[in-house]
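Hi R.,

Here's the chain you asked about this morning:
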Amino acid sequence: MSEYVKVAVDAMGGDNAPVEIVKGAVEAINESSKVKVYLVGQEDVLKKELAGYTYPQEQMEIVHASEIIETAEPPVMAIRKKKDSSLVKALNLVKDGTCDAYVSAGSTGATLVGGQVIVGRIKGVERPPLAPLIPTATGCSLLIDCGANVDARPSHLVQFAKMGSVYMENVMGIPNPKVGIVNIGAEEEKGNALVKETFPLLKNCPDINFIGSVEARDIPAGAADVVVCEAFVGNVVLKTYEGVGLTLIKKVKEGMMTSLRSKIGALLVKPALKTTLKEFDLEQYGGAPMLGLKGLVVKTHGSSKANEIKNSILQCITFTEQRINEKIKEKIMTQEVVSEQEN
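And here is the predicted structure, written out as tokens:
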């Protein structure tokens, strides 16, 4: 095909870089002919890694970057000082239009700072949120925000709801997605100051399907398609999700090995259990998009393996083809016009 969705991948970022990053990139282009990957990192290292794989050469390009931003480095200083880092050079490929999207398992702080400073926000977007898909009993939900804006204001949460609705409708194909705000009870009068101020604003939003408060225990059941909160709450929800999931899997495995009878039972239920556990695997959805930027920025877990990297790259195809940024821009611009008319 003549035109690819072009994805810049920070090949040196993350606990398992560059081995798993390169493997994921190769798996992505072997699976889809629609994407071209720009692997950004130390050229000699990446060439050595790629030597062991078979893949369509025209869908892979190496962009040399001599430096690496480590996870523990202060994000703002790292972005300023390490101009030739894989993270900064990959983000600049999105800024200058060479690439449509960026994927990294590297420093979250540097990615969040770089996304805003280098790629830049869509006009009218106050704060870009980090929004991962999380598995639920009915499919998946978008948790927005999970790490970018700890001290959010009510107007920020309203924009999160709008951007999340655009994403779920167009990327995940959910018509009129249900939007809920994370709260400590179902009643409208409950919650902290932020939730109490935001609730009526969401309730009066004509262009979202607001269903009210959602308690944390109802999130895994799929109570809302778009789960709105500020980043502190969102990050706690996400990490609890991950921790409980890992603990349950560990306990189930231990329980199955306690006796001969349980081992025989384990063999019988293994196929069904494997299918069920796969549905609740966060890796299948890829990383968390940072919505509201001029280009797509996707942050994956620092411990990401090839499968998550692959899925993060592939999600960039749908995002780009569905013109998510343009639709977010239209939604935010509509909000500004309405606000001006009311004033």
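One quick note: Residues 69 and 81 are 10 Å apart (CA to CA).

Cheers,
M.
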